[in-house]
C-alpha cells in the first residue's frame, strides 16, 4: 500500500538558515519572504533547496 511520494509529499518551505538551525521558519507569511529568525540574527534568508520531501510512512 505504498503511495506515490509526489501525492503524499510536502513542500519544503523553510529557508536554509532555519533548516540548518532546526527552527520554525515563517518566511512564507512575512513580507519579502524574510523570516523572523533571519531578521533577528541579521543573516540572509535564502531558499535554495526546493521540491518535495516524502514522509517516512510512504515506504513502510
From TrEMBL:
InterPro entries per UniProt: Zn2-C6_fun-type_DNA-bd_sf, Zn2Cys6_DnaBD
Q: List the PROSITE patterns hit by this protein, alphabetically.
A: ZN2_CY6_FUNGAL_1, ZN2_CY6_FUNGAL_2
Source organism superkingdom = Eukaryota
* One Gene Ontology MF term: DNA-binding transcription factor activity, RNA polymerase II-specific
Q: Which SUPFAM superfamilies match?
A: Zn2/Cys6 DNA-binding domain
Ranges for domain Zn(2)-C6 fungal-type come to 14-47
Protein name per UniProt: Zn(2)-C6 fungal-type domain-containing protein
This protein's species is Gymnopus androsaceus JB14
